[in-house]
Amino acid sequence: MEMVVVAPPASGKLDDLKRRFFATPLQAVISLLSLSVIVFLVWKLLNWAVFSAVFDASGGADACHAASGACWSVIAARWRIIFFGLYPYEEQWRSALACVTVVAMTVLSCIPAFWTGRRIALVWGVGAAVFYVLMKGGFLGLSFVGEEMWGGLALTLFIFVTTCLIGFPLAICLALLRRSELPWISRTTGLIIDGVRSLPLISILFTFAIVLPFALPQWLQGDKLYRVILGSALFFSAYQAEIVRGGMQGVPRGQEEAAMALGLSYWHRISRILLPQAMRNALPATINQFVISFKETSLVVIVGFFEILASGNAAYGTGEWRFAYVEVYAFIAMIYFVFVFSLSRYGAFLERRMSVGER
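Above: the chain sequence. Below: its structure as tokens.
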């Protein structure tokens, strides 16, 4: 006779709440005090940011002085500087469309249907080309706008996209070189990777922006923006190379040996067997590296670029809005939060997707 085991009824949410936070009198007191502090802080924040805040820019800075809350009027009055920097006013639609292009390119990259080398390369290559054409112009009826006029969110996204576009293929090359069977190649590559990783990014940016022109001939120096991007891409590739190499180590050795036994060439083994599985293993860590790289774009302000943080400084830098720096930085922080949180949640989705063996 088959025995049927009846599971005990699960405790309700209220019972679980009592068990977690009100199991003892002391725990109940601590929980209530903590809840009171949280409610108080949330109320103060909402009162400052919403209920007592000033949103209308028509009253100018004088309306903010009379209010007790945040002065969001500075955002309403100066948002163009924050988003577009020094870009010509009549051409700012191009900068806005370029930012939309980057967002669309990122969204497409997150769709599993595009998770092949050719499709990802096509999406990023076309997206970067469209972004560059929109920003710089000079043909297709668009007026020319030099890189010195770029700024705001568009410049931040440009540095991020080009850093990943250059750094990711370079990272794959470094990872493959480091696992080479020739000791002098693998050790030299490992020395380069470890050397770059041992330096802070700001020192690399400073070297590429300021020091490198003294060591290069005039024809090889190029624009400072592109030198900074190359330095950022080198830094990105050193960290991403180790992520890719870790993904390769997660692929069973027997698969590559079986491919060799079947007579597959080196490039077929790498492109058809090793790299697809390695990139799948390294996807969550790769998303995390993208998040870090996006946040690190703010460091280019140190070497004189007018990215979104510098644009924010200019937005409240006039005498009329000088007091509203907290609101400007809070708005910029919210922009960073939207991009970074979206990428982070996507990384969490990838971890859940791979944990159940979906493809």
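The chain has 15 helices and no strands.
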